[in-house]
């Protein structure tokens, strides 16, 4: 023992390196073991769903999974196959996986929608936006029926595999463990609890609109945030560096535009999920005969209320138009989107600090900003305006656009604990 201690002391550099290597290896193996335990527990829970008896005449539920293999720097496919796919197969679902790694597949996606019971999107925010857009692009004539009818009826599951997964903050509890986060999201799909989410329809100069479940950003914070990855060599300082160097171009940075908007709309009552039973044949015949022989009612002309548009000239460092999906309230009586117009009088220090905060919460509306609640708006940009919009973290050319709120158009699966939390917060 004395000889071993002497050797270790004489070669203290190698000893230190060996201890660090063994500690790291042990920690890595322990992490792998914990992940395997999480996967096993999730599979056992999924097996309980698969063991449930169903009538022989009832077909298996069909699930269509849209998987983006490029998400999470190309790791999404491996993450899905190791953590989510076993749970889905054990649950008894008839699973069809479609990879969204090539263009021109919109027609195929639309055909799949006619024969599926639920949709599962595996990827990040960009994948959600891409699937919505591909389905909309499939046929311009079927656009309204595609989004408003098909998606309103078919529930959607979201498995967070991407770098940015904004929807997961609303649908699932926070988790620092990626495996647990993915398995929780997959199990939430099996449990069947859903919440309605709003959609923004963004129509520009082109005929085809763009759809977003998070929102639109236009301004200096978004432009600086896109360049953060260029400063990867600065490690944890890369975010501040990107915003600091962007102040050298022009200061103060102002984005000028004209905004027209309509106020919130009253939320209609929930439609019953189960349709009333059809009355007997003799009742239907009696009603038709009575309607036929009765005198036609006099039509009372209804006054058409003109839309009350508000107009506003703005100069801002950043403008954001966001849904209320992050602050979900299932009991509110009005439907609206949040328009945040940030003041253009911030200092360079405030810009750098606030830019770091916006990397974690892109649609935060800082103190001193003008906040507007609207159901529809038109954004007019001056001629020659350059730059880009960020729509659900996807880049689009900046142009005049009309943004319309489609309230509660998508039903997403969520963790039952999150639904209870949302309802409890609404009651308070």
Mean pLDDT figure: 82
**Largest sheet data:** 6 strands, antiparallel
Into which percentage range does the β-strand content fall? 15-25%
- Globular, elongated, flat, extended or rod-shaped: what is the shape? flat
Q: Please report the distance between the alpha carbons of the first and last residues.
A: 66 Å
Radius of gyration: 27 Å
Task: Give the uncertain stretches in residue-range form.
Answer: 139-148
Neighbour order of strands in the largest sheet: 6-5-18-15-8-10
Oligomer: single chain
Class based on secondary structure composition and strand pairing? alpha+beta
Helical residues, percent:
40-55%
**Number of strand segments:** 18
Provide tags for this entry.
40% helix, flat, 428 residues, NAD/diacylglycerol_kinase_sf, Acylglycerol kinase, mitochondrial, six-stranded antiparallel beta sheet, single chain, alpha+beta
What does this molecule look like?
It is built from 14 helices and 18 strands. With 428 residues, it is α+β, with helices and mostly antiparallel strands. Strands 6-5-18-15-8-10 form a six-stranded antiparallel β-sheet. The protein has a six-stranded antiparallel β-sheet with strand order 14-13-11-7-16-17. A four-stranded parallel β-sheet has the order 2-1-3-4, with helices on both faces. Strand 5 and strand 6 form a beta hairpin.
């Amino acid at each position: 023992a004395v000889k071993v201690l002497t050797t270790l002391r004489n070669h203290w550099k190698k000893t230190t390196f060996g201890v660090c290597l063994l500690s790291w290896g042990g920690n890595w193996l322990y992490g792998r073991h914990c992940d395997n335990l999480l996967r096993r527990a999730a599979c056992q829970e999924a097996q309980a769903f698969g063991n449930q008896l169903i009538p022989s005449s009832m077909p298996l539920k069909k699930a269509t999974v849209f998987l983006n293999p490029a998400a999470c720097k190309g790791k999404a496919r491996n993450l899905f196959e190791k953590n989510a796919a076993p749970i889905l197969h054990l649950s008894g679902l008839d699973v069809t996986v479609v990879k969204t790694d090539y263009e021109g597949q919109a027609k195929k996606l639309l055909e799949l929608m006619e024969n599926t019971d639920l949709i599962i999107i595996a990827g990040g925010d960009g994948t959600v936006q891409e699937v919505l857009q591909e389905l909309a692009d499939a046929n311009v004539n079927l656009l309204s029926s595609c989004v408003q009818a098909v998606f309103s009826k078919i529930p959607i599951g979201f498995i967070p595999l991407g770098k940015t997964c904004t929807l997961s903050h609303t649908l699932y509890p926070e988790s620092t463990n990626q495996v647990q986060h993915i398995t929780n999201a997959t199990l939430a799909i099996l449990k069947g609890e859903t919440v309605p989410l709003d959609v923004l329809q963004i129509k520009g100069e082109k005929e085809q609109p763009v759809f977003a479940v998070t929102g639109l950003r236009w301004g200096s914070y978004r432009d600086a945030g896109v360049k953060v990855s260029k400063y990867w060599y600065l490690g944890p300082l890369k975010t501040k560096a990107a915003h600091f160097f962007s102040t050298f171009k022009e200061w103060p940075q102002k984005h000028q535009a004209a905004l027209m908007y309509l106020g919130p709309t009253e939320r209609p009552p929930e439609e019953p999920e189960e349709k009333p039973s059809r009355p007997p044949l003799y009742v239907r015949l009696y009603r038709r005969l009575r309607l036929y022989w009765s005198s036609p009612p006099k039509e009372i002309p209804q006054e058409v209320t003109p839309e009350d548009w508000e107009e506003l000239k703005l100069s801002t460092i950043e403008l954001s138009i966001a849904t209320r999906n992050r602050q979900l309230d299932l009991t509110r009586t009005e439907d609206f989107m949040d328009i945040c117009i940030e003041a253009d009088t911030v200092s360079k220090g405030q810009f750098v600090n606030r830019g770091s905060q916006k990397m974690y919460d892109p649609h935060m509306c800082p103190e001193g900003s003008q906040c507007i609640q609207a159901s529809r708006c038109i954004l007019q940009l001056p001629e020659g305006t350059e730059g880009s919009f960020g729509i659900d973290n996807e880049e689009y050319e900046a142009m005049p656009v009309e943004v319309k709120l489609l309230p509660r158009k998508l039903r997403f699966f969520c963790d039952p604990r999150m639904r209870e939390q949302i309802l409890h917060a609404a009651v308070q």
